[in-house]
Specification:
Largest sheet: 6 strands, antiparallel
Strand content: 15-25%
Distance between the termini: 29 Å
Shape: globular
Number of strands: 24
Helix content: 25-40%
Number of helices: 17
């Protein structure tokens, strides 16, 4: 990871309150309304971060010559409050121990010193939301940046003798005074500063492929024809660049859902050509959306080990294309990404960190999003309705919680990348409601529909699973189940009627018996075993009394103690169809 986090204050719409951007992942979304300060986070990272890092390190010369201060009048914070300039760097929980050991090597002599260092760093003076933040402050960008800490507060963290011990272990010094030497020098020795600053590239919101022969210093589209041409036919010594060209080409095939699609820069280098289905077309004939993703995918592929900041990647892109783009960048490139966006459609595209930007009285506020409730607030802030974004993209209806347990058990084996609550949701209809459901729309030409509950109104991409309840192969399912099966199979989605009697009949019969005995110690054996038998009925003790096992407890015990086996009845076929449908509902082309 190029950056794990950073913080700053006193820059444009960011006021005196330190904003913390972290922890960071490969993909990071900066999301909010227009004119709330999203771009200012990207601008600080691109224009000021390296300068502020060097100032915090008290470096006055850059490469032997005086570097021009990048902080301009336009970068000053304008509001009713006075803002000081800060830059902050975090150590997250997984890094704290290693950092302390670097400062105080892992030997018996330093055991006490490490304990004292940990006590100081993990106190409220430095700890914020599980991370240790080191903040450096100056009155102005040209001033001396010093570690910001409440001296009186940190003074209380150790007693007189402990501060002396810590100082001695860190500096190998003796004597001194607690206020002038022990505390300030210990804090200076413990303070964290990042290593070399990574390369940062910003791809602006206005993007367009430039004319033939155009060159550019940025990745807005100008000069992209020349850049692609160089990796399309690289010199012999740089044949590895061809892999980048093939990667871009693979993405074009995915976007167009056509394996014959190929990108080419012609000899004249005056356009981008697409070969597809035996035809050759200029890129602009395929629409603005494809234009956009080619620019972004090419830029991200051409760059390596770079922080790439993309402003409004959703411009001209359908939500499906947005997700495809973000998924490609996440999985096929080696950069770290920051996207400033208004689009809530990106929230579940890939695993990411989300930072919600709002503004109060001209000052931008940043909130790291970690809960479903906070995501809901984002959607409200952006003007999305629940019907637009908050639901998962596919709903699977089941009778009760034991069916959900088994479905997640099988899905985890069949396609572990699918996440419940993101790619699909499982909802319960309950046996008593079964006859009141319909998969037809309320506007269907059927008066009976008015008296039923249409699950299509909740989500168009819907699957229903129910037990056949058949006790022999030639038996028929009842009329209600037959009606629902026919309605759901009209699509989108389908009805899954169990091949055997119930969902439990997809399991290993002997292992079901073991789970029943584990859950009900008084059980001696199952009444019967087979695909048309009720596997939850058991004999109690030595007598002939029949009992029915707890479905949910048996399900939990079974999945926790047995490996998945899909080679039963039609289970593998059904799971393959279900996974294909969930992927389709989420816009993934398999």
């Amino acid at each position: 990871m190029l950056l794990k986090g950073f913080g700053f204050s006193g820059y444009r719409s960011i006021g005196d309150k330190l904003v913390r951007i972290g922890p960071l992942k490969k993909v990071n979304l900066i999301i909010g309304q227009n004119n709330v300060g999203k771009s200012n986070i990207v601008n600080f990272l691109n224009d000021q971060y390296a300068y502020f890092v060097d100032k915090a390190k008290n470096k006055q010369n850059f490469g032997g010559s005086k570097k021009e201060n990048p902080f301009k009048d336009i970068d000053r914070h304008l509001s009713n409050e006075r803002a000081q300039h800060r830059v902050s760097f975090p150590l997250f929980e997984e890094d704290i121990e290693n950092y302390i050991q670097q400062k105080l090597p892992n030997d018996r002599h330093h055991i006490v010193h490490r304990q004292l260092a940990r006590k100081v760093l993990c106190s409220e003076s430095f700890m914020h939301n599980g991370a240790v933040w080191f903040t450096y402050k100056a009155e102005n960008p040209n001033g001396q940046f010093e570690l910001e800490v409440n001296f009186d507060e940190v003074f209380q963290k150790l007693d007189h003798n402990e501060w002396k011990k810590l100082w001695s272990g860190l500096t190998r010094s003796s004597g001194g005074d607690i206020r002038t030497d022990w505390i300030p020098e210990s804090l200076k020795a413990l303070s964290y500063l990042p290593g070399p600053t990574p390369n940062v590239e910003v791809i602006p919101a206005i993007r367009k492929i430039g004319a033939a022969g155009s060159e550019a210093n940025d990745y807005s589209g100008e000069g992209i024809i020349e850049r692609i041409a160089k990796i399309q036919n690289p010199p012999l010594a740089q044949q590895k660049l061809k892999e980048k060209f093939l990667s871009i080409n693979g993405f074009i095939q995915e976007v167009l859902e056509n394996e014959t699609a190929k990108i080419e820069i012609p000899y004249e280098r005056n356009m981008v050509l697409i070969h597809m289905d035996g035809k050759t077309l200029p890129l602009e004939s395929l629409g603005t959306g494809v234009h956009e993703v080619v620019i972004l995918a090419a830029a991200a592929t051409l760059l390596d080990e770079t922080i790439v900041c993309v402003e409004e990647p959703e411009l001209h892109l359908h939500p499906l294309l947005q997700r495809k783009l973000i998924k490609y960048l996440s999985e096929k490139t080696e950069n770290q990404y920051f996207f400033t966006t208004h689009s809530a459609h990106l929230l579940d595209a890939v695993e990411s960190e989300i930072f919600h930007i709002t503004q109060i009285d001209g000052v931008s506020c940043v909130e790291a999003i970690s809960s479903t409730k906070q995501r809901s607030n984002i959607c409200n802030d952006l003007g999305y309705k629940a019907s637009d974004i908050l639901q998962a993209n596919c709903v699977i209806w089941v009778e009760g919680p034991s069916d959900r347990i088994y479905l997640n058990y099988w899905l985890g084996a069949q396609s572990p990348d699918l996440v419940e609550g993101v790619h699909y949701s499982i909802m319960f209809y309950g046996g008593r409601l079964f006859s009141h459901l319909t998969a037809l729309d309320q506007d269907a030409e059927n008066e009976a529909v008015d008296d039923l509950i249409s699950v299509r109104k909740l989500n168009r991409n819907t699957v229903i699973m129910f037990d056949s309840d058949k006790d022999k192969p030639r038996a028929r399912i009842n009329a209600t189940k037959q009606r629902l099966k026919d309605e759901f199979n009209l699509g989108p989605g389908f009805a899954w009627v169990t091949k055997g009697r119930e969902v439990e009949n997809y399991l290993d019969f002997d292992k079901v018996e073991e789970s029943v005995k584990a859950v009900h110690p008084s059980a001696s054996k199952l009444v019967n075993k087979g695909e048309w038998e009720n596997l939850l009925k058991y004999h109690k003790g030595r007598n002939s009394e029949e009992k029915t096992a707890n479905k949910v407890k048996v399900a939990r015990h079974y999945v926790e103690n047995n490996p998945v086996d899909l080679d039963t009845l039609d289970l593998k076929e059904r799971m393959g169809k279900l996974v294909e449908f969930i992927n389709s509902a989420n816009g993934y082309v398999i």
